[in-house]
Amino acid sequence: MLSRFFSDRSIMEARLARPQSVSDGEVISRLAGVFRDVGYEGASMAQLAEATGLQKASLYHRFRGGKQQMAEEVLASAIGWFADNVLRPLNGDGPPAERLAEAIRSLNDFYDGGSKACLLNMLSSPRIEEGPFSRSIKDALEALVDAFAHLCVAAGWKREEARRQAERLVTMLQGSLVLSRGTGSTAPFRNFLADLPGEVLERPSGTDTLE
Amino acid sequence: MLSRFFSDRSIMEARLARPQSVSDGEVISRLAGVFRDVGYEGASMAQLAEATGLQKASLYHRFRGGKQQMAEEVLASAIGWFADNVLRPLNGDGPPAERLAEAIRSLNDFYDGGSKACLLNMLSSPRIEEGPFSRSIKDALEALVDAFAHLCVAAGWKREEARRQAERLVTMLQGSLVLSRGTGSTAPFRNFLADLPGEVLERPSGTDTLE
DNA sequence: GTCTATAACAGGATAGAC
DNA sequence: GTCTATCCTGTTATAGAC
């Protein structure tokens, strides 16, 4: 979307006829910051313009679908980054411990050590019920569960239990972000990341003898 | 707040001079439903009036502080109910299994089987940063951790580990509600409640031999 | 205490110059 | 592509009758 086919041209145009004052990636990134802070309804066009350094009309020029399209592209971008930096290592085929370590580093970056909320949570409640975000959010959560389950299987878990554990991990991730925001401390998120290796690599010893 | 000192009088006044068409408790309950669905910014006065069956001006008569006061009283009411029905059993002194069972029933009621979001999450992001909700939310989350920790100690956990486990449980609670909303299924919440007794009453056998 | 009507404002979105 | 200026709907909030 946007000037995908003109990304090089827009560089050449800088300071010329129609200089693109802020790159598309930078705009998306700054919009994301606002949506993550205050959610969809809480984000005003004035605030989004302020954050990007563009005027409202300029934002509408880039996103003809208005605020909704901005949130959609922000969400798509975040999901893409997540797929590249979190899901890919989890779904890889190297040593589980190393794959997990890479995913943990990415998670720490993505949530800035626990100081940034999750878009999947912040965009879950717009008045637009069953709107354009619902499907993406659901798919993203399930893809993350799948990826963790894949890793757990590689770490030796039985398929059934790997899935349950993966659901627990995604639950803990989201919960730790809620608590970090609610308590004003990043400790819950940091504790979650610190516990992750143990949760994945050390299976409970007594429970896997039944099946 | 409100007509606390006139609760009986307001009944006698019904259909007389100033009939209170909807009870205070009922108004708070219906307002809570809206805030839990769409959050603070997402809730408009028109929607709140619609949900309560009152006109906007009538709502302003009852809540002179406007929407913010409504959210404050809704939050205070929910926290009060939580203290009576969830924290009290957890902090009680009967058999841990029975106390937990009662708390679980209350949690299931409170979140309607996982179909209702948590106000502590939904009110965490208003533009009013560090606003009137932050303190209550932080205190409520910490009180819940304390109560679970108290129960874990009663169930035989060591104090340090009881606290860590309690934090994990509150994290799981919040996370399961996020996932339930995000995936459109109450399964994550129901799984959380189903796992709770095991998480509290069955301590890990291998990890408590070090200290 | 509730209502209708309306004020005062902020919000999302657009027009058109450059 | 960006800007200033503006439109118009929806929002919060108030006035005043009953």
Describe the fold and architecture:
- The structure is a homodimer of 211-residue chains.
- Chain A contains ten helices and no strands.
- With 211 residues, chain A is mainly α.
- The first copy, chain A, has one domain (3-201): Tetracycline Repressor, domain 2.
- In chain A, helix 2 (24-42) runs antiparallel to helix 3 (45-52).
- The longest helix of chain A is centred in the middle third of the chain and has 25 residues, at 66-90.
- Chain A is elongated.
- Residues 1-16 of chain A have low confidence and may be disordered.
- At the A-B interface, helix 2, helix 7, helix 8, helix 9 and helix 10 of A face helix 2, helix 7, helix 8, helix 9 and helix 10 of B.
- The structure holds a DNA duplex (18 and 18 nucleotides).
In short:
The first copy, chain A, is mostly helical and 211 residues long. In chain A, 70% of the residues lie in helices and 0% in strands. The structure holds a DNA duplex (18 and 18 nucleotides).
